[in-house]
Amino acid sequence: MKKLILLIVLASLSFQWSAAQDSSRVLGLSDFLKIVREFHPLGKQANLRIEYGEQNLKANRGAFDPYVYGDLYQKYFDDKQYYDLLNAGMKIPTWFGIEIDAGYEQSDGNFVNPQRGTPANGLVYAGISIPIGQDLFIDQRRADLRKAQVYQEITKAEQQILLNDLFKDAISAYWEWVGAARKYTIYQEGKALALTRYRAITRAAIIGESPAIDTLEAYIEYQNRTISLQDAVLDYRNANAQLEVFLWNQDGIPLELSVNVSPPQTDDFDSSLDVNLMRKHLDSLLSNHPKMAKNELYLDQLNIQRKLDLERLKPKFDLKYNAINEPLNGDIVQGYSMNNYNWGVSFKMPIFLRKERGQLQKTNIHIMEQQYANDQMVRTIGLNVNAALNIWETTQEQLSGYSTIVKSTNRLLQAEQQKFEAGESSLFLVNSREWSYINTQVKFVDLLMKSQKAFMNIEYQLGRLE
Questions:
Q1: How many independent structural domains does the chain possess?
Q2: Each residue of 250-277: b (16+ CB within 10 Å) or e?
Q3: Are residues 212 and 254 in the same domain?
Q4: At 159, which CATH number?
Q5: For the chain, N or C: smaller number of CB within 10 Å?
Q6: Can you give the pTM of this predicted structure?
């Protein structure tokens, strides 16, 4: 009769397991992360950082776009035309600080300033403006453009940081879901075993082949496992809800997990790691960290600002030259002479340079602050990576040892069942061995999920979860 009870229990579990496998669809980690990467709002927000950097660079490049200008001034009073002044043209800024200028000017009237006087046909002009002192090597436009180019790289680092943080939370929720699903299955199987055994023992007690007290023992065990399963169901539902936070479709609508979706059943997860090699090359790994890259790029921007501040210590000395000519019969070249031109210089130099020297020192202080922050970040990230590596090594050792405990506990259970079949054991001892086996399975699941999270944390601390 005890052999019949055991066969009924095993057959029931086999049927439930195969039915569950046939009706479920597996959601692997890579597929889950693909959904998160493409459709999660934070993933889309990370992509916007790249686009913002591109538009910011475009805006600063616009400072070098050619532009047209024009001025028209007229004055009439007491039936007299005092003046009619026209000046229009186009300027072309260049990367080297030189501006190319070409245009047309014409003046007419009774009270035109002789300096603004032109022939009746007006004058065409073309020339250049060259900074000889300040702004020769770098000016505000060139500094802004270089900063924008650096900022475009900063947005790439910011995208990696955002995705790294997003994937950390998503992967953590995924492994919580995997662990909760496995523990739910374990407790479900345990409850099914207890229920099947209770029914079998009840039938055996009715026909007098089993003590009636065993039915009470079996019923109590069934109730205990029912409560444990209820807790597991609650944990699984909460893990489902937490995982659904990261599930969105292409239209920005949050998704819900189907009841047919299940996590992978294998324990052979991709988590191979050469710890010694990683520790050996930790410095090079840290140099590629997006947070380090972002800080170094901030330092590059500050160094660009420092070059501009140094340039501001020079006197401002600009040279301008224009060749001029009167257009004849619509021909702007006819009659041109090298003797027709205007030129000028402008000079400006603060006596004390307090503003310029103060700005330079402020920038130097910002550079020192950033360097100190970089040093601290290297130290912090390095310690975090080493701590994550230590946790992963420990969990690997624990998994190796605990897998032996699970097998040994199962062997003890099988031996106790054999003794029970031979009439040399009691239902209490079988239930105790079985409950011990359930607990070791749950503990193994916890260690397995802890190991996967530890592996994920290493990649997170290195900034590589994107």
A1: 2
A2: eeeeeeeeeeebbbeeeeeeeeeeeeee
A3: yes
A4: 1.20.1600.10
A5: N
A6: 0.82
